[in-house]
Amino acid sequence: MAKPLLEIKDMYVWFKVFGGILKVLDGVNFIVYPGEKVGLVGEMGCGKTTTMKAIMRILPMPPAVIPRGEILFKGQDILKMKQVKLQHLRKKEISMIFQDPTAALNPVFTIGTQLQDTIRFAEKSGKNTEKEGIRTRAIQVLKEVSLPDPERVLQNYPLQLSGGMRQRVCISMALVSTNELLIADEPGTSLDVTIKDQILRLLKELAEKRNTSIILISHALGAVRGMTDRLYVMYAGSMVEVAKTKELFAHPLHPYSQGLLAATPRLTGGGIGEGIDGRIPEYINPPTGCRFHPRCKQAMPICKDKKPPFFKVGKDHEVACFLFQNHR
Amino acid sequence: MIILTNNILTIEQLKKHFVTRQGIVKAVDGISFSVKEGETFGLVGESGSGKSTVAYTVIGMYKPTKGKVLYRGKNISQESKKRSQALKKEIRIVFQDPGTSLNPARSIRQILELPLKIHNLSRNHKDIVNKIEELLKMVQLPVDYIYKYPLMIGGGEKQMVAIARALATNPSFVLLDEPTSALDVSVQAKIINMLIQFQKKFNLSYLFITHDLSLMRNVASRVAIMYLGKICEIAPASEFFKNPLHPYTQMLLSSISVISDEEEALKPKKIISKGEIPSPVNVPPGCSFHLRCPNKMDICSREDPVMVEVSKGHTVRCHLYTNTHV
Lengths: 328, 326
Ligand SMILES: Nc1ncnc2c1ncn2[C@@H]1O[C@H](COP(=O)(O)OP(=O)(O)OP(=O)(O)O)[C@@H](O)[C@H]1O
Ligand SMILES: Nc1ncnc2c1ncn2[C@@H]1O[C@H](COP(=O)(O)OP(=O)(O)OP(=O)(O)O)[C@@H](O)[C@H]1O
Ligand code: SF4
Ligand SMILES: [Mg+2]
Ligand SMILES: [Mg+2]
Description:
The complex is a heterodimer.
Chain A: E1 6-17, E2 20-32, E3 37-41, H1 48-56, E4 64-73, E5 76-77, H2 83-93, E6 94-97, H3 101-104, H4 111-122, H5 131-144, H6 150-155, H7 163-177, E7 181-185, H8 193-210, E8 213-218, H9 221-225, E9 230-235, E10 238-244, H10 245-250, H11 255-263, H12 301-305, E11 311-312, E12 318-319
Parallel strand pairs in A: 3-8, 3-9, 6-7, 7-8
Antiparallel strand pairs in A: 1-2, 1-4, 4-5, 9-10, 10-12, 11-12
Chain B: E1 7-20, E2 23-36, E3 40-45, H1 51-59, E4 66-71, E5 74-75, H2 85-90, E6 91-94, H3 98-101, H4 108-118, H5 125-138, H6 155-167, E7 173-177, H7 185-202, E8 205-210, H8 213-219, E9 222-227, E10 230-236, H9 237-242, H10 247-255, H11 261-266, E11 308-311, E12 314-316, H12 319-325
Parallel strand pairs in B: 3-8, 3-9, 6-7, 7-8
Antiparallel strand pairs in B: 1-2, 1-4, 4-5, 9-10, 10-12, 11-12
Bound molecules: adenosine-5'-triphosphate (2 copies), iron/sulfur cluster and magnesium ion (2 copies).
One adenosine-5'-triphosphate is lined by residues 15, 17, 22, 24, 42, 44-50, 60, 63, 99, 219, 283 of chain A.
């Protein structure tokens, strides 16, 4: 397979807060290959956004510290990059669409002002800086995200647009700058199903058209199924399973992945699985060993003592669970 | 007059409008349905379609602008302060957000003893403690939670407390307003299974509100779909997913993401969702869905369709069906 575009190696992120240290990310390993659509699912507070913010180097530090780990983008460690390089990275290479489109836009400036600033910023080094050119480009990207009446949208303030339209504007801004990796953090979660579906389809289309890699984050399994090639499942600060998306849905192996899949209601009916007892642990004093062990019905003595690494169980399938340590 | 019916709740032409600075919000605009004794009736709709407003009107937080709410055949279209204690004991509600529906300054004990005291359900101190412990056990929480405060427990556990509070008065009818939409699916599963179990055990009737159709498929016996304050379709749950009739229902079903091919096969094909949901202050004339509807005809922008029964128990409000069935 090709070299990874992005590779996170054994990364830890802690938050030093009043009363102690929140040990949130606990050895994250995560890879994105060029042109690939990768899903990341996990429940509330498992560390999805924190992982992505670390990639963008936008974690607030303090309180955040990164005691260990590397984030290699095309072989270079993002965590060691100087400001100038970082700016280039965010302008030209990686961009992120946030969970809440309202917070990502400034309510006191028109969409036109904000979008044109983004274009100017992204293309400063390049050619297209004259005023008309920027406006034309703005209208073009708004059209690309299927916003009707882009001229009017340019004159609107964020609050004059619906949630779905705001999310589209955010995507258009991300498109201005990206050409390699787009991170979409629960796009449309706050929106209605019919609108969310439109946004997801749009993202997929655009990524395929531009051959951009994409990381799609969601707390729901359904949203990533039709959208991604490979899928990571995250629990309490680290990845517990990764496989081709199809394979993961067909043969989930980690007890947490299995529990999540069983608990998801199905359109075919017949009742809902029993769910998983307990809840996600406190990060101030997380369980030792496998962080899932207090909730795991198959836990063994070793699970309490040691943190399971990824065990390879198939070509693209890895599971961080001691049940699979003697596989093959 | 004695009305022979097994409907525990009947809503007749209910309207609830709010006067705001932007104009009149027709949050609920002429809906009718009934809930049968012992069933789970599902109300589905996107954000702002008026689901909570229906629930709040049934519980008496709002007085209807027009129309009626009947409970066991008796008109209860009044605000809760005018309702009898007996009625308040009968109809209870679980709110959407467990974070704000439990008073953070009260201990779990205080939260659970309130309904017991108001409704005179315990004779003395010891009795109250016993009852509270029983309630906690019923929702599978440790009895020492009696001393905890909402902020000290997880979201799922808060919702269990809220459910225990609702059931404390031995009600017959419970409004469940998106009881799990703020929770993780692994926690949701536990709560839903518990609710189903309580329904059987205590012979409860539920009005279950959610925006999640896959969840609805697994809990409701009949389903109504709301769009902008109106109901567009009502059908038995199994029929509903097999044979959705209203173009909006079809769009909704084809938009949801599912986790298996078997489910994918149930979704209507090629109904690409388009358009934005209009503001409830400025509802489009005629059929309020016509701006987004792939089947729109001339009449749709002029006349609001009426509900017609297409097959037994399956009603739909769309000109595609009124034309052929008058
Ligand atoms: N700036 C911060 N200071 C302290 N704790 C933080 C900070 N940012 C995140 N955390 C904590 O880190 C944990 C992981 O948060 P994160 O936002 O990454 O989760 P998530 O998986 O994106 O969840 P969600 O599905 O809710 O978006 C949470 O417990 C959160 O409270
Ligand atoms: N007290 C109020 N005053 C003015 N407008 C209101 C009031 N309560 C609700 N509305 C409006 O009525 C409409 C329906 O609201 P409602 O809360 O019933 O929707 P919902 O279907 O429960 O939505 P959600 O899924 O977001 O909970 C919305 O447009 C809302 O803004
Ligand atoms: S009445 Fe007309 S516009 Fe409304 S849903 Fe039916 S076909 Fe579509
Ligand atoms: Mg997040
Ligand atoms: Mg609501």
